[in-house]
Amino acid sequence: MRINLTSVFVDDQDKALRFYTEVLGFVKKHEVPVGEDRWLTVVSPEDPEGTELLLEPDGHPAVKPYKTALVEDGIPATAFAVDDVHAEFKRLRGLGVRFTQEPLEMGPVTTAVLDDTCGNLIQIMHTA
C-alpha cells in the first residue's frame, strides 16, 4: 500500500494552480472538468509519476470553518519535503511568499510555514 493522492482545500482553483506551479514549482498533472470545478492535480517535477496533490475546491460547508480554525491556530494543512529549508525559504521569500514561521531547527528536523494564498498554511521541512 502506498499514498497515491492527497488533497488541500483551496478557495480558488485558478489561483491555487498558479501558486502551486509558478511559485512552489509543482507541475500540473490532471485537469478534468467536474461540474463547475475541476479534478486538478499537481506533482513534483522530480517525481512526475509520484503522489499527486489535488487542489480541491473548498465549497463544502464544513471546509471553511475547518480551514479557518487551522490557520488561526497556526496548524499547517500539509507538509512538503525540500532539500534545504533555509534555501527554499530565501527563494520563496524573494518571490513574495508570506511565512508565518521562519526556519526553525528542532533537532534533526528544520521546518518553516508559509501561506499558500488559498486559505492554508503549508509546512516545508527537511531532515538533517
Key structural traits:
alpha/beta; four-stranded mixed β-sheet; 8 strands
Structural class by sheet pairing and helices: alpha/beta
Distance from first to last alpha carbon: 27 Å
Please state roughly what percent of the residues sit in beta strands, choosing from under 5%, 5-15%, 15-25%, 25-35%, 35-45% or over 45%: 35-45%
Helix content: 10-25%
Shape estimate: globular
Individual helix count: 3
Mean pLDDT: 97
Q: Can you walk me through this structure?
A:
By secondary structure, the protein is an alpha/beta fold. The protein contains three helices and eight strands; from the N terminus they run E-H-E-E-E-H-E-H-E-E-E. It has helices spanning 13-23, 63-72, 85-94, and strands at 5-10, 27-34, 37-43, 52-57, 78-81, 99-106, 109-115, 121-127. A four-stranded mixed beta sheet has the order 1-4-3-2, with helices on one face. Strand 3 (37-43) and strand 4 (52-57) form a beta hairpin. It is globular. It starts with a strand and ends with a strand. The mean pLDDT is 97.
Q: Mind sketching the topology for me?
A:
Layout: E1 5-10, H1 13-23, E2 27-34, E3 37-43, E4 52-57, H2 63-72, E5 78-81, H3 85-94, E6 99-106, E7 109-115, E8 121-127
Parallel strand pairs: 1-4, 5-8
Antiparallel strand pairs: 2-3, 3-4, 6-7, 7-8
